[in-house]
Write a structure and sequence with these properties.
about 45% helix; seven-stranded mixed β-sheet; alpha/beta
Length: about 290
């Protein structure tokens, strides 16, 4: 057995045990425990140095105390999100208990009923799985585009948890691109998180600095004239959320396809930046979002 294989098995065993614990607890208790563990351990991990660098780039006027607090709160949110993953089936976005409030539900209904394909996009905000869950629980069959986890056993666990949203998961890459086109041509809907670095992407401003941005979401929307719907999730408190679904973006039509793709990506990044500024600590600042981060 290789060292890597052994590491994957041990990692999967730990994830399985943690998932069983979080499922056994009441939802709010699981979320609290996940946050408590992550905020105690996370700030001391080396990867937090990248979060600090990214935060200083995005918020140059923040002092050391604000940066440290944001990193602490980021880890709290990530821990809560991890603990909520095994419990996605417990979330009812339209229950009257107020755990989740969905603003702009009419935009979901419009895409559900218009007989056309469409794309819902967001970023790694709060618990980012709540957005596609809100879409799916409104009767939209949504296919999620995702980056597979490095550990295939952990990846399988994540996909099982996402079964509460959809059974159709599209890996990023050439085969995934073909699958996305097939779904669009059938009139289906995609859910995409578009806030990660793409080395072969287009340099587009993000928090005032060029960031390599994946062009696929803009290219698909323009080529197939798709409704492109900005979404965001805010963690209000604990395991309670507000989902905001905005009207579809107006697609640029200058006649220059390359210019239109770049213009649309600028608009997308602007929407993401606005959403992050609402709760800066609830975005995943661990990404290598900028070329030198």
């Amino acid at each position: 057995m290789t060292e890597r294989r052994l590491a994957h098995i041990l990692e999967a065993a730990a994830a399985t045990a943690a998932g069983a614990l979080f499922r056994a607890l009441p939802l709010d208790a699981a979320s609290r425990l996940g946050g408590a563990i992550a905020r105690r351990l996370g700030p001391h991990l080396k990867v937090s140095e990248r979060a600090e660098k990214n935060l200083r780039r995005a918020f140059p006027t923040w002092d050391d105390r604000q940066i440290a607090q944001a990193i602490h709160d980021m880890w709290d949110n990530l821990g809560r999100t991890a603990a909520e993953y095994p419990n996605l089936q417990r979330f009812d976005c339209y229950a009257k208990d107020g755990r989740i409030v969905v603003d702009g539900v009419e935009h979901i209904d419009r895409l559900r009923d218009d007989g056309r394909a469409g794309i819902f996009f967001s970023g790694h905000l709060a618990n980012w799985e709540i957005m596609p869950l809100a879409v799916a629980q409104r009767g939209v069959s949504i296919s999620l585009v995702y980056r597979a986890a490095n550990n295939p056993m952990v990846d399988a666990m994540i996909l099982r948890a996402r079964g509460a949203i959809t059974e159709t998961h599209i890996p990023k890459g050439a085969s995934g691109a073909r699958q996305m086109i097939e779904i669009i041509q059938r009139g289906g809907h995609l859910g995409m998180l578009v806030d990660q670095k793409h080395s072969g992407g287009i340099a587009v401003p993000f928090f005032g600095h060029d960031a390599m941005t994946a062009p696929a979401v803009a290219q698909l929307a323009l080529k197939y004239d798709l409704p492109l719907v900005p979404c965001r999730v805010v963690r209000e408190t604990g395991a309670r959320f507000r989902v905001t679904i905005a009207p579809p973006l107006t697609l640029p039509r200058s006649g220059d396809r390359h210019a239109d793709v770049r213009a649309l990506l600028r608009t997308i990044n602007h929407h993401l930046e606005e959403a992050i500024r609402l709760r800066p600590a609830h975005w995943m600042w661990l990404h290598r979002r900028w070329p030198d981060s």
